[in-house]
Amino acid sequence: MDYLWLVFSGVIMGLVAAVPIGPVNLICIRRTFAYGSLNGFVSGLGAALGDGVFAAVTGFGLTWVAGLIEGYSRAIELAGGAMMVYFAWRAFHETAPGNWNEAPDKENGSLAKAMLSTFALTVTNPATLLFFTGLFAGLGGLAGGAGSFLDAGFVVAGVVGGSAGWWLVLTTMIGLFHARLDAGVVRLINRSSGLLVGLFGAAVLIHLALKLL
Q1: Tens-of-pLDDT digits for all 213 residues of the chain?
Q2: Domain count, the chain
Q3: Pairs from 22-26 (Cβ < 8 Å, separation ≥ 24)
Q4: Helix%, strand%, coil% for the chain, nearest 5
Q5: Domain span at residue 26?
């Protein structure tokens, strides 16, 4: 087995998971505009690690974990939807200070919090587990099975690396505009992204409510 191919396959999975616009993307983009590239990248890294968790569950054949996630899928969806609504509320009501370009120094003190928030948001989306199950199946059934743990490990590492690479490129490019924005533009970005993330969260909660009826 060509381990370079396995890593490359994982990188493609990570990119496929990270690139589509969703609530995590909006949060990372908003934080990059508001606080700079470092905060945006660390937030994206939290999402990459979350993708890695689901990839590991699938790749290592951890069926008991998958069953646990599926068994508590409604509670997990509720937590994820509520988190999105909370992030949306925070973003919509956040205002940039007059000397807002000093915000990165203040915000970078909570990089761990930024990473944990996007990690939590990523792992509270059970649909991602099904997504990675399909991707692993497309790679010839690397998930589980005797002698496949090393193979799956290379793929999982590629997933995290591919996703993290995307966030590095994206936040670096967006960060180039960070110093050029004034407080009014940052406020508009906060409110726009907050509105969109709130719509994602509301959709999750409404979908969950309809399933319970």
Answers
A1: 567 877 888 888 888 888 877 888 888 888 888 788 899 999 999 999 998 988 888 777 766 666 666 676 677 777 777 877 877 777 676 655 444 444 444 444 488 888 998 998 888 877 777 777 776 666 544 444 434 677 778 888 889 999 999 999 989 988 887 666 666 666 776 677 777 777 877 887 887 788 777
A2: 1
A3: 22/200, 23/84, 23/87, 23/121, 23/196, 23/197, 23/200, 23/201, 24/118, 24/121, 24/122, 26/193, 26/196, 26/197, 26/200
A4: 85, 0, 15
A5: 3-212
